[in-house]
Amino acid sequence: MVPDTERAGFIAIAFDLIAQDGFSIRDALKHVTALGLRTKRGRPVSFQSFSNLLRRPVYAGRIQVERFGIACQGDFEPLVQPQTFDTVQVILKNRAGSSKERQLNNPDFPLRRIVHCDICKRPLTGSWSSGRTKKYPYYRCQARDCGQVQIRKEQLEAKFVAILSAMSVSSELLTLFRGIVRDLWKDRKRQELSRREQLKRRLDEVRERRDKLDEAFLFEAKIDEAIYQRQKKKLTEQSQKAQAELLSQARDDIDVDRVLEFATNVIAGPGQFWSGLNSDQKVAFQEAILPNGIGFDGEFYGTANPAFPFKALSAFSGDDSRMVSPTGIEPVSPP
Length: 335
Ligand SMILES: [Zn+2]
Prior knowledge:
three-stranded antiparallel β-sheet; two-stranded antiparallel sheet
């Protein structure tokens, strides 16, 4: 019933990485493979089997007999906290859902679904209409009882870019924003550094205790084998956890100036930024900044509900600050 112990240790780490540290399934697999996770035959575990492993209720201490639809809590110590297990199940499920959803995107019409007809509130669809010599792309409301909106793709997208550009933020505010992020970043780095030191000390400690344990068992014969194995396993798990955290910190070591430059460009010129994306990226970006979509009935109205950070930043800027002539760093201005 209890999965074999060495593998179980790696799986426990994987659960934590995914549920608590925000790792993707794939990155968590990479991680525990680096730490030593292998199949019984000594090969790296495939993505598919890894996903299947993460779905096994036994890890949360649950016994499930699918054939009879029975699920109950087992009387043994769960390898992962039930809450952690459930979190990972949600992530696994969403992952499967999102790849299906992506196929629904039509690369010719990125604004489908995000833009809705402001008269009947249903999402616009995209399609090609035949002209005399060639086909032309249109966005339309195709609701039978409405159908009042119809616009050429190029026109709607140009209007959309204009709406995005109106969300841009003044350069003074961007300078302020950069300063705040840099300060926060320095603080975080300082904290990380001390956490790193702490983890390294912890690893040394565990190593020392393992040596002592070996000595007590192998040379002095002070403890019996069962206790030795149990303690050894505990220490191995502790050291794997500390190592995994150290590794994940190394991964976070990003170039904050480059990220900031990127973020600044997005916030300073979201319209231009959108234009440069491919279709899938456009859809993802739209959903992030306009989670409630946007209504259209020939023109876009102020119905947009831009998400954070646009919302937060524009709350600071007010309407007239955009007219203040830019000083300092020039924002990327839309064409
Ligand atoms: Zn309509």
